[in-house]
Inverse folding.
């Protein structure tokens, strides 16, 4: 059975997002914009801002939650939080090093926080003095340096911009401790929200699309009070200034691709362009106490899992207040990068699985998850991606041998291990083709077997 676009999400929660919408006819202009995005599959998210200084601790007390949320969690008044800017001096920041890391990791695009919910701009802004050049002793426009470093290495660069929440501004959404609730019980807006949008958020997005060369995408987030009309104002700015720039799925009006929830990998494939933003530990912005790193093997599984479902993996690092990407993050990313150097054909430019049964199945006993949805039980033994004439089977554990290729009508031409092109013997009996995994499995992370077939696409 082939499963497409039902978007039941794995994990503690099973949520359906836009499951039953009729497929829209593709917009050729949008499809053209998306071409690179559909090919690259793997990007680096960077959450960097003033929150890297407290790093999860405020006034000597641990503040739980996401590092970049500390102003909110600890209810830090604007006047107090602002003082962090006078201490922000990341002297070890080197844009070339960061781009080199992304490159070594096999990541093909970078998305960095230009302004997170705390309202602090990590770039020179004429609109608000609350920015890295005008308010810190560092005085350097790190986005400009990163843009120049990316241009040198052909790395695509996108900007995260928190369009709706801005805890620094009376009109921005989210800061209830200084400025009171955003909305009353009757949903009536209580803040000068449109003033904030027109006088800070919209002009800052214009600045980002002006001074930094071609911008691959703008990554909007948490569209609180973002009516379609307000979202459209941002979309119009992006489209009119840089028509090739992608808009993510969290603007509040239609973007170019679907963004899943944070750290959410859907259970099934979709042909629509989509992306999972995810943490490498449990926080986005740096926290000194978060050492819950995912292993290179786990990252590799998630990457292949996502690609086999047609999506992109935007994996985050949280640099320190000194401007250093934590060494464990670097080591993990480079380990996955070495694997990709050998096995990248299974990833870059590859398309989603033509099968689906390998992903797992719904509980036969009718079990429900915490949200009362049918429980999905994922399988993790192997995944498959495809290109014209080729299937890439990635094995994460040794399959019970022999491995049976799911039934296809195409004639199979042969099989080999991707890492060294060692041929594999195929056996066909009563219409079933099998092979034995090469022993021992060469790669403890994952081993890719390429199966070549006649024709461009799989016929089932
Ligand atoms: O930028 C990253 C997050 O900061 C941002 N999206 C990713 C890419 C994000 N914004 N909002 N959320 C994620 C949802 C946040 C929920 C929580 Fe909380 C923040 C749970 C705990 C801290 C808000 C404050 C809800 C409870 C306390």
């Amino acid at each position: 059975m082939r499963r497409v676009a039902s978007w039941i999400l794995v994990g503690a929660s099973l949520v359906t997002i836009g499951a039953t919408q009729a497929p829209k006819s593709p917009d050729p202009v949008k499809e053209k914009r998306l071409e690179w995005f559909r090919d690259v599959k793997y990007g680096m998210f960077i959450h960097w801002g003033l929150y890297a200084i407290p790093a999860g601790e405020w006034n000597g007390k641990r503040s739980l939650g996401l590092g970049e949320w500390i102003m909110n969690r600890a209810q830090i008044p604007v006047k107090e939080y602002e003082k962090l800017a006078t201490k922000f001096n990341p002297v070890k920041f080197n844009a070339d090093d960061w781009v080199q890391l992304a490159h070594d990791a096999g990541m093909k695009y970078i998305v960095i926080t230009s302004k997170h919910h705390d309202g602090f701009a990590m770039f020179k802004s004429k609109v608000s003095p609350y920015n890295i050049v005008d308010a810190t002793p560092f005085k350097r426009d790190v986005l400009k340096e990163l843009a120049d470093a990316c241009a040198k290495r052909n790395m695509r660069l996108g900007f995260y911009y928190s369009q709706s929440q801005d805890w620094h501004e009376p009109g921005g959404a989210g800061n209830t401790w200084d400025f009171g609730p955003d909305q009353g019980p009757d949903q009536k807006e209580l803040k000068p929200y449109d003033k904030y949008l027109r006088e800070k958020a919209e002009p800052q997005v214009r600045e980002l699309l002006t001074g930094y060369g071609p911008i691959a995408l703008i990554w909007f987030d948490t569209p609180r009070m973002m009516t379609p009309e307000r979202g459209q104002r941002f979309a119009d700015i992006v489209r009119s200034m840089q028509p090739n720039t992608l808009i993510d799925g969290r603007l509040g009006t239609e973007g170019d691709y679907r963004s899943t929830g944070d750290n959410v990998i859907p259970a099934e494939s979709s042909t629509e362009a989509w992306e999972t933003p995810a943490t490498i530990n449990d926080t986005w912005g740096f926290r000194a106490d978060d050492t819950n790193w995912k292993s290179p093997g786990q990252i590799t599984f998630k990457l292949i899992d996502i690609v086999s479902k047609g999506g992109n993996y935007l994996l985050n690092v949280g640099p320190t207040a000194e401007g250093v990407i934590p060494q464990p993050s670097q080591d993990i990313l480079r380990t996955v990068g070495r694997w990709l150097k050998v096995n990248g054909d299974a990833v870059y430019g590859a398309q989603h699985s033509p099968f689906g049964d390998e992903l797992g199945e719904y509980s036969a006993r009718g079990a429900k998850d915490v949200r009362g949805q049918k429980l999905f039980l994922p399988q993790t033994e192997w995944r498959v991606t495809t290109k014209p004439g080729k299937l890439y089977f990635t094995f994460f554990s040794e399959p019970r041998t022999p491995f049976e290729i799911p039934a296809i009508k195409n004639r199979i031409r042969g099989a080999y291990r991707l890492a060294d092109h060692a041929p594999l013997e195929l056996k066909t009996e009563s219409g079933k083709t099998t092979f034995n995994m090469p022993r021992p499995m060469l790669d403890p992370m994952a081993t890719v077997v390429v199966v070549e077939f006649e024709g461009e696409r799989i016929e089932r």
